[in-house]
Amino acid sequence: xxxxxxxxxxxxxxxxxxxxxxxxxxxxxxxxxxxxxxxxxxxxxxxxxxxxxxxxxxxxxxxxxxxxxxxxxxxxxxxxxxxx
Length: 84
What we know:
The chain is α+β, with helices and mostly antiparallel strands and 84 residues long. It contains two helices and two strands.
């Protein structure tokens, strides 16, 4: 995969958020290792983009598969991409 991020940043000027239905969801889990409650949270909902997103297709597909980021083992970082 050829992810030249500078080029992607320049191409992102042609993409805009056309709609967003996002909310914050916070929850706690018990950490046996730390013997303490751990606070987790993030955004859930949907985001609609307008413009040419084709340069970002491989990056978005990787994000769907990898669920990268802090808390990924708890399901955080999950995205689903749907084409119109």
